[in-house]
Records
---
Amino acid sequence: MLTTPEPEPGRSLPLLPNHPVGRSAVTCRYRCANACAHEAPNTSDNAYFGDVVRSIVDRRGALKAGTVLAVAGAGMAAFGGSAAASAPRRAAGRPSGGLDFDPVAPNTKDAVVIPDGYQQSVVIRWGDLVLPGAPRFAFTNQSAAAQAKQFGYNNDFCGLLPLGRDRWLMGSSHEYTSEEFMFLGYDAENPTEEQVKIAWAAHGFSVVVVQRERRSGKLVPVTDRHYNRRITVGTPFAVDGPAAGSDLLKTSADPTGVAVFGTLNNCAGGVTPWGTILSGEENFHGYFSGADAITDPKTKERLARYGAPGGASERQWERFDKRFDLGTEPNEFNRFGWIVEIDPYDPKSAPVKHTALGRFKHEGATIRLAGDGRVVAYQGDDERFDYIYKFVSKNTMARGTGRPAREQNKKLLSEGTLYVAKFTGDSPASEIDGSGKLPSDGLFDGTGEWLPLASNEESFVDGFSVEEVFVFTRLAADKAGATKMDRPEDVEPNPVTGRVYAALTNNSDRGAAGEEGATEPNPRNGNKHGHVLEWEENGNDPTATRFAWRLLLVCGDPNAVDTYFGGYDKSQVSPISCPDNVAFDEAGNLWISTDGNALESNDGLFSVPVSGEHRGHVKQFLTVPIGAETCGPVLEKDFVLVSVQHPGELDGASADNPGSHWPDGGDSQPRPSVVAVWKG
Ligand code: FEO
Ligand code: CA
Ligand code: CA
């Protein structure tokens, strides 16, 4: 039975001088355990080599070659395509229309605001039925048993897999819970057992069949008895890859080190060409407590590099399950921070934690198929001064969609080589002054190298065993000399051109005392608005170990001198701040969703052509309600899906004082939801 203590009038929220400008402090608190209020956990002294290596002879040539590849029509495409990555293909040559919309103006409305001529509908909300027999959502009478059958909280990633005409399997991750917004009178010092168990059931993942109604254009959920699925903190996961069975992963409940209950803080992800979903375990550290009890220096160093809290955790789950207490179960921490793979076509299959993709605060992972059939997974580690990674599989993708091929392909991410990115700028260090002013060559650009960390058989980092590289990947990457980036979020290859795009969302500590200053790939000190990085692998081969890069966008107010929009006329673009998720339509136009807009507008979804005369022409397609962030964009042929995460999550707001009434209106509580938008 849910208990609802009396509200505490005027209960003050912690003030966080260091939290990003546009994001509510309360979001920082629940989402990432105030990661930005603490010192960035990367205290390594990797040098930035931008001013050392300057001349790579073929860099300009590589750029020109890439340009001809990219013929996708700027301003031409309908939506078409999804976040699913696949082999590069030619532009579909669709007629104009999709980007032919009047941009939405920045605003702070409590609504999803879309361009004229478009329609929208809510596909599914927190608490809506997923499994047959789920009770109707009752905000003031929620239970863990009900929540385990209902759509979870704070949906982030969204992915669609085809299931027939106008029918899809929709996968949604449930990144985190915001208890003050879920429970009236929530007492953060004394959460009840039922509240904690509701939170366990509200995390994880949902698979829901969705159907598009031909007449209305709406996308509606279907209570499918076979496919619909909830994954929670209690769901059994298998562990595979080079760290499976390692002593570092063994606990008293699992002496084998290959079986873990649950997944935590699932942020972005990707749809694989073989029909599964990848999901990143991101700020998992915030669920653990008691690092102060650890005395072994090596273990302390490892915990610190991942930001493990010293005392109690925010949600105090350790009171009800000792595995979240590091003093009791130190290795449970090592069993999170992975990429997990979910097969939505096989609802009885155990999801898998792939240790071969490394362990860090995974934003997500997206796949590109190489010409020789191997697959490459691109990944970002979302923390100030952390890194961009890629994994190259050892084996090649089997053709076909039959069970043998699918089972074989579900092993592709079990064996391969993990790399981390090192970026080198081509402009003199003196021209990268931290202001965002373009260097004299007119571009923030240069070359890069993928530094190998380990394969299943061999470590390439001195002093690290294979299993240590994969379990303590951040430390191995420090040693290898990776480039410190401004919070790498989504990293995704363009399915038309093969170029890869990374959202670097912000880094208020860039250039702060004791921290690394501006570098050519991260050219602004106190970076409030973030930037978007573009690169192409040498020979357009995703398995290559070298690449050429440049910044596509340096985000912020177009009227400000420190912003750059791919060289496009800045008087014509929409302001954009804090890029988070990236996706592509079938013509190869980039779509960007934002988290933490620091320009006094709600977050939104933006489109931008990446080639042709409109390269850099950023246009805002929609905004989400107040307090929300936009994530999970899916660009289908005839509609767009966005996740509206944490609506109303404003400082000072709570369930007792709602900051939003979206989507149900009136005096209702806000509910995180998936929204569809289509032209009509
Ligand atoms: Fe969960 Fe990096 O955003
Ligand atoms: Ca340059
Ligand atoms: Ca994100």
Note: Residues 1-19, 50-98 have pLDDT under 50 and may be disordered.
---
Amino acid sequence: MSSAVAMEATRRRQRLSSNGGASETTEEPAGQWGRAWEVDWFSLSAVILLLCTAPFLVFFFVMVCDQYQCSVSQPLVELYSGEATLRSIWDKAPSFTWTAAQIYTVWVSFQVVLYMCVPDVTHKFLPGYAGGVQDGARTPAGLINKYEINGLQSWLITHALWYANAQYFHWFSPTIIFDNWIPLLWCTNILGYAVSTFAFVKAYLFPTNAEDCKFTGNVFYNYMMGIEFNPRIGKWFDFKLFFNGRPGIVAWTLINLSYAAKQQELYGYVTNSMILVNVLQAIYVLDFFWNEAWYLKTIDICHDHFGWYLGWGDCVWLPFLYTLQGLYLVYNPVQLSTAHAAAVLLLGLVGYYVFRSTNHQKDLFRRTEGKCSVWGKKPTFIECAYRSGDGGLHHSKLMTSGFWGVARHLNYTGDLMGSLAYCAACGFGHIHPYFYIVYMTILLVHRCVRDEHRCSSKYGKDWKRYTDAVPYRLLPGIF
Ligand code: NDP
């Protein structure tokens, strides 16, 4: 069925002339959106490598804190000298527990209930907040899905309950997440693999929208990068929106709070570095939920298919590796000098400003179709046209002023500045907390390349005109 859809889309696809008008029909393959139709050996090797190593990498970064006070080199030295073996390290690591399974089941179920059963009311009284039912972007097959945006509300309810428990009810310790951290890792892996496998099987047996599925014939690639574009159960349970935002990103700030509580319990105080990490990351998380409707227009929702990359990544990679700084600070309570703390805060806030303003400029520009003011002037842009997989002709604009005229992805640059600030908050004692900036750099540079490849396929010569007008990607004059 999927290859029939692909062939049909191929037949219908037309090459666009540079001024946006449709010209001759060609046999150019359709669907240059999202993941590939065909897999080369390099991509396949990368996929298999990631599938095999990513779960162990997460285990490694958490285990080294548990057993080696977050020293990344010590276990390697001990393995080399024969003082430790893979078996002895594995045996020392806490394993699955039913307590962790209960905590995680309650957590995920609670987030499902908040997502599905509590329609958003916050948009009714928070000025400027776009919640409630919102439209997503047009899918490759030409559909526009509707989403219930209630992430901010879910975050507020969850954190209000967390606070109420810590202050008044004392049902559980605020260190509960830290205290069950490695057992929780096994539980998140179970859910991550279960949801990815379910999405994979569902794509073959009962896809939500068959026209938005992509099959490559390579089982590993299909499993990892996903087949279905917007898998759903029923009308509203959207896998991408749920798994990306909750349970992972709602949990992010709670995990950090649990780390701070652990510092307090162990040392009798909370370090300024821990406060910085909590505050800077909370800004990022709150920004995400405040702008959840905007998030519907980002690459994750607009172009990526739902497979292991998103399913397992959201359940395991995100909560464990995006919170490494707080974990590190529990084992290494760094108290920063005032100058160091101020520099980290400044870097984090400037990074956040660049990240948010860049994203905001594009959002404003696209929403108003260029009829707005950016840096006090009417924005300049390039007119583009493209076709969706169903053959429909659409028009778009690429802004060439504001942050989008300085470089093509300054939102990524701002994100990287913020990420560096989280790492620098941990001082310079170990490289462990710096894994995050290395990972984010790889992720965002790769994303940059992926996105530009897609935009080039989508807009053709119009994209070339844009890259001629704005030649740099992340750092003007350098890259
Ligand atoms: P962008 O928000 O940059 O979106 C890229 C898309 O914007 C392009 O595909 C194109 O889409 C459109 N576009 C490109 N140039 C222009 C222009 N000049 N004018 C108007 N539209 C343009 O990318 P992402 O969705 O990847 O990122 C969104 C944010 O999320 C970023 O700030 C990023 O840092 C952050 N992020 C964070 C991650 C994390 O793990 N912390 C992971 C991934 C992203 P179209 O087809 O519509 O033209």
Note: DSSP finds 21 helices and eight strands in the chain.
